[in-house]
TrEMBL record:
<dbReference type="Pfam" id="PF04366">
    <property type="entry name" value="Ysc84"/>
</dbReference>
<protein>
    <submittedName>
        <fullName>Lipid-binding SYLF domain-containing protein</fullName>
    </submittedName>
</protein>
<dbReference type="InterPro" id="IPR007461">
    <property type="entry name" value="Ysc84_actin-binding"/>
</dbReference>
<dbReference type="InterPro" id="IPR006311">
    <property type="entry name" value="TAT_signal"/>
</dbReference>
<feature type="domain" description="Ysc84 actin-binding">
    <location>
        <begin position="97"/>
        <end position="180"/>
    </location>
</feature>
């Protein structure tokens, strides 16, 4: 017989809450994700006009319309999105991460990864599971309106924009997030 500890209870509760979040995909998987991606890009470009330049200069854009993150000692996040090249969806991806430590709360947010070089895009697409690392360049959402692609493309092959945060957790980081190709 197994002894259930508080840690097991918290982990089971966090997993249940994360599974219950509204970012799952039904039988219309691809079309549902595509509609969410289009809406997310439209919102981002309208709200942060400087990101439009990034989108035009990027070799590819990974759009995660809704990522749900929960934490109570143990935490995790999950979302689904699409990789677009020249404005067309070429693949679907999930983003997942796990964490442990002093944390409590829940939040939802959107994020977009701009692959600024063909090599960065090729590395991402060739990997079995690409993990965002510390070398990922972040653009704060409130700086998006003054962002210029020319100044950043030479510095970082992958640029992340995190926006539309709601919830009771402070901040969102993509470090340690694993992206995996899926079939919706």
């Amino acid at each position: 017989m197994t002894n259930l500890t508080r840690r097991h209870f918290v982990a089971a509760g966090a997993a249940t809450m994360l599974a219950a979040c509204g970012n799952g995909v039904n039988q219309n998987g691809g079309s549902t994700i595509d509609a969410r991606v289009a809406s997310t890009l439209s919102f981002m470009y309208d709200t942060y006009p400087g990101t439009r330049d990034l989108g035009q200069k990027a070799a590819g854009v990974l759009v995660m319309p809704l990522v749900t993150e929960l934490g109570l000692g143990l935490g995790g996040s999950y979302g689904r999105g699409a990789l677009q090249i020249n404005g067309s969806t070429v693949d679907y991806y999930s983003a997942a991460s796990g964490s442990a430590g002093l944390q409590i709360g829940a939040q939802q947010y959107s994020h977009v990864l701009f692959f600024m070089t063909q090599n960065a895009l090729a590395d991402f697409r060739a990997s079995m599971g690409w993990a965002a690392g510390a070398d990922l360049e972040y653009v704060a959402a409130d700086q998006g309106d003054v962002l210029r692609a020319e100044t950043i493309t030479s510095l970082s092959p992958v640029i992340a924009v995190v926006f539309a945060q709601t919830g009771l957790r402070i901040g969102a980081t993509l470090e340690g997030t694993k992206y995996t190709r899926i079939i919706p």
